[in-house]
Amino acid sequence: MDAKTRDDLLQLFQSKLNRAMTYYLETCTRCGVCTTACHVYQSMPQAKYIAAYRAEIVRRIYKKYFKGQGKVWPSYGEAKELTEMALEELYEAAYSCTGCRRCMVYCPFGIDTQMIMSIAKLLLVGAHAEPEILTLLADTSIEKGKSIEFFKEGFLQGVKNLEQQVVEKWKLEAEGKTVIPVDVEGADLLYVALAGAHSIIPAAAVFNAAGENWTLSFFEAVNFGAFVGDPTKTKLILDRIVNEAKRLKVKEVCICECGTAYRVMKQLSGKQPFEVSSVTEVHARYIREGRIKLDKSRFQGPVTYHDPCQIARNGGILEEPRYILQHLTDDYREMAPDPRYNYCCGGGGGLVALGEETLDFRMKSARVKAEQVQKTGAAILATACENCHTQLENLNHHYKLGMNVQFLTSMVADALVI
Amino acid sequence: MSNAIQADKVMDLKGLPCPMPVVKVSKGIKEVEVGQILEAQTTDPGSLTDFPAWARTSGNEIVDTIQENGVIRIFIKRNV
Amino acid sequence: MHTIYYLVLVPMVYAAFAVFIVGSIVRMIKILRTPKHPTTLQIFPKKEPAWLHALSDTFLMPTVLKHNPLLWVFLVLFHGAVLLLVIGHLELFSDFALFQIIPHEVFIGKGLVGLTAAVSLLYFLFRRFTSPVRDISVAEDYYLLILLFLTVIFGSEMDWARRWYDYDVMGVDAYRTYLWSLITFQPQVPDEILFSGHSFMLVLHVFFANIFLMVFPFSKIMHTFFALPVNKLRRG
Questions:
Q1: Whether C198 contacts C169, CB under 8 Å
Q2: Nearest CA in chain A to B64
Q3: In this structure, what is the dihedral angle of CA atoms A93, A98, A99, A104, given to the nearest 10 degrees?
Q4: What tens digit of pLDDT does each residue of B34-54 get?
Q5: DSSP designation for A62
Q6: pTM of model > 0.90
Q7: Which site among A65, B20, C129, C146 is 20 to 30 Å from C4 CA-CA?
């Protein structure tokens, strides 16, 4: 690595060193309490999968360039130079961490490994050593934001085609009413879905059944900038939706079943004239207010729920999915350990988006998740995140769990009493 | 159907979870020669904005889009 | 030889405290001047009041108790012992009514406090020689434990000698003279301290303690100051 590249990378490193990050880098005593926190370590007990070990890979570079000891006495903290090899280590550490923050529950100080890994991810972006596909996806999202007028017509036509499916399936009255409204100024709620029809159709059914004054966003909720750890791109992708919400003057932005999208929008959008909610919260509200009714007999067999880390432990949506499930089944089985200690599905941090490339690792590293799910004895495994759903579906197949993996929104839509 | 562009490779991406359609197309485009056409079939309306945006980002070109019977057929010419 | 003793007992002590105090303050100020993180870093479910839970997380270490009870026992013993040792050293300046609520003879703890600290340190050290803690340890972790162990063991030996073997040449009065002279910047080392048979223990104790103080602001021991604010981040 030449001096110029290194300097540029160290500039990026410096940009991450805010107060919280400095605390996280300075405080770890390597006590080892986090050892068994990581699902990857539990499934494959190797030192490199211990949270403190991952963090130390970043910390060693920090000691080398940002602390006196790295210059005076580098061997004291085993400070490490930033080299091509160090980048490889950073890659392995960052992309075997799903950012679930389970280790944070174990740590006596509450050190956030996901945040430390964000330094690793940013350095990889700076060195053009990140997973290319994630950057491509992020750039695609940004491009979409820039030239939405150009794509609008096609999208509207595509949405029209979906409307018919909604009307047919739920026998909704459609005369003179738009089943999937788009670009409606003054709507109360802006629903931000994913590209897939499965993320739009059931949600539309529920919104219409509840008589919501809603509108569908042009943009997909997911933020690939966050997955790849590029703060600039994360912000650009986020701003597309924020700007759309402001333009339409909506009161509420409702994020579909996507963990990253929810956490980024909820926690990173700052103070805005609209509220941010997850579709799970909104559905729970409809039930509570009696705006929708669900048929309990629609789903047979015991049901369990996988808490998506970014929505539950890191986003605070814990009660709502359980409240919804009370209205869907009489046989709800909580996973053990409880949501605070819930295992990551093994697909977070961009791993699922990397597709088959990471499949082998995802299956091996999430063995404990598969076991946790199996122990519930449930027939239906519900979740509220696209990423988790894909990964759980893969686990279901790989470990032959024989479960029916469901989106919670789809279950709500299917059980609607119209 | 008959007036559709003749594709050199067809990919069925119907019902795939996010973000697999774009991921698969980025891989699939490498399997046709520069100048050849890849046809992606999907049911997701998001693809109608995702694919053009992806094409611009990756330097490829959408030459035609057909929506029929709920299926969206997107024809992509490999340019790079 | 006595020149070396004097150098360790007077100029080096001043240097050590200067580095410790200035170093810690400068580092804290530097960190407090960096920008805050723009978003919340808490984990859920959130419990109110957050500050109370952050205090409990910091001082009671419930997560350690849950996941590694044996380590928790030693951590509590060790940190408790350190607190008592600090009190013990303050009492080597003069009597504090506050500390005498439970009447005791200076040095507090009948020699058991130092023993507890030393044993805990050995536990911390030896657990670092076994996987998986060994795999995440760096040189610093061993250096600091060894340094602390040496400091504690030489310090305690003097206490043990007085209490358990009736060695009475170096007593509390001698320490008080010496420490008061240091704090009033009129350094003077009484003969009992400089020329007695146990002087080398005191000199070694002070020497290792000086090094520890000088390393403190630049090492992971800063968790002393960071533990509370960092725990507060988790609680929101």
A1: yes
A2: A154
A3: -80
A4: 999 999 999 888 888 899 999
A5: H
A6: yes
A7: C146
Residues A182 and A49 in one domain: no
Confidence of residue A175 (pLDDT cuts 50, 70, 90): low
SS3 for C71-87, per residue? HHHHHHHHHHHHHHHHH
Which residues are within 8 A (CB) of A274 and not within 5 positions of it... i.e. 6 or more apart? A190, A245, A246, A250, A251, A252, A253
Domain extent for C156? 2-235
Answer for the pair A299, A415: CB distance below 8 angstroms, yes or no. yes
Which residues, 6 or more positions from A320, have their beta carbon under 8 angstroms from its beta carbon? Answer: A278, A280, A281, A283, A284
Predicted pLDDT of residue A161: 85
- Using alpha carbons, list the distances in angstroms from residue C12 to A331, C6, C193, C195, C207: 71, 9, 16, 19, 8
Confidence of residue A345 (pLDDT cuts 50, 70, 90): very high
CA separation for the pair C144, C150 (Å, rounded): 10
Residue A128 has pLDDT above 50, yes or no: yes
CA-nearest residue to A267 within chain C is C39
Can you give the CATH number for the domain in which C133 is found? 1.20.950.20
| Residue B53 is assigned to a structural domain of this protein | yes
Beta-sheet pairing, B37-42 with B71-77: antiparallel
| Residue A50, domain extent | 3-129
**H helix count then E strand count, chain B:** 2, 4
| Nearest Cβ partner for A313 among C31, C44, C71 | C44
Using a pLDDT cut of 70, give the percent of chain A over it.
99
Q: What's the CA gap between A347 and A389, in Å, rounded?
A: 9
Based on the fold, state whether residues A258 and A343 are members of the same structural domain: no
**Per the structure block, which two tokens stand in for C192?**
């009992």
ipTM, 2 dp: 0.95
The backbone torsions φ and ψ at residue C70, rounded to the nearest 5 degrees and listed phi first, read -65, -45
Touching subunits for chain A (3+ Cβ pairs under 8 A): B, C
Confidence label for C117 from pLDDT (cuts 50, 70 and 90): very high
Q: What's the order of all strands across the beta sheet hosting A380-383?
A: A332-333, A303-306, A380-383, A404-407
Whether chain B lies against chain A with 3 or more Cβ pairs closer than 8 A is yes
Which residue in B20, B22, B72 is closest to A158 by CB distance? B72
Distance from C-alpha of A126 to C-alpha of A9, rounded to nearest angstrom: 6
**Residue B49 and residue A155: Cβ atoms within 8 Å?**
yes
Domain containing residue B43: CATH number: 3.30.110.40
Nearest to A211 by CA among A286, A285, A275, A156: A286
Q: Would you say residue A77 has pLDDT above 50?
A: yes
Residue B3 lies in a domain: no
Contact A67, C23 (CB under 8 A): no
